Amino acid sequence: MYRRIRFKHFFFVVSIFLLGMAQGSFAQGQTINGFDTDNKKSGPWQLISDDGILLEEGSYYKGLKEGIWKGFYPDGTIKHEITFKEGIANGPAKFYFPDGSIWEEGVWREAFWVGEYRLYHPGGQPAYEFNYNSIGKRQGEQRYYYPDGTIKYKGKWEGGSIDGHVEVYDSIGQLQTIRNYEDGVFENSSEMSRGMPEDPASSSDKVISPFHGTGYHTAYKLNGNIYQKGYYREGVLHNGEEYVYDNSGKLRQIRIYDNGKLVKIKSGTELESKQ
User: Fold this and answer.
1) The whole model's pTM is what?
2) Domain ranges of the chain
3) N or C: at which end does the chain have fewer Cβ atoms within 10 angstroms?
């Protein structure tokens, strides 16, 4: 989880750096690209690539970026919207998938996210809903979601660390486990009882080797089938694969995760070598 946040921090900082470096790449003859009486960039500007593709557009004031600057994919689809104040990224920011759907959004303060932050699965369903304090550390309730929008994890953070417990839900939204933490370190977990006789047919679907730490791990179901394998952060699969079976135990999907995000689902003929 921590690596994912640091990676996104790095991605955002690189994006800001490239915005500043691209200022001289506009095409000749762009009449909107003006200067004030002190020969500083002023008013609406467009940054154009050498082959005529619009890269960014926004406004300058006294030579500094001011207000919302938009970046674009090569086909013209919006890529990001970043708010600048006196030349520094400071305010609401949004990033988009190549199809134009929202990827992430929040408020950026010079070097980190503050307040409410959201990351989305492809298709528009929420993936993460985080809250950050004024110095960029996670604070308050944090939520993770399955690709269909069903809650997956929920817990509270204090000063960047888990405070108390994290609730773990299955893919239909039923509470399965409560993981207890102290000062951000995993202590123990409690399995939730349903108060009903267990269906023998479903017992083989239980995970018998869960992992609550950070590192590489393979989790198996009671019937011996692999459930998840890869690199975990605080018990959450960060980079790796998740295996989905039907009621008969036949493999139906392999979900690929990269930096905590679902990036691909294998099915059909792609699974033949795994059967």
Assistant:
1) 0.60
2) 2-202, 203-275
3) C
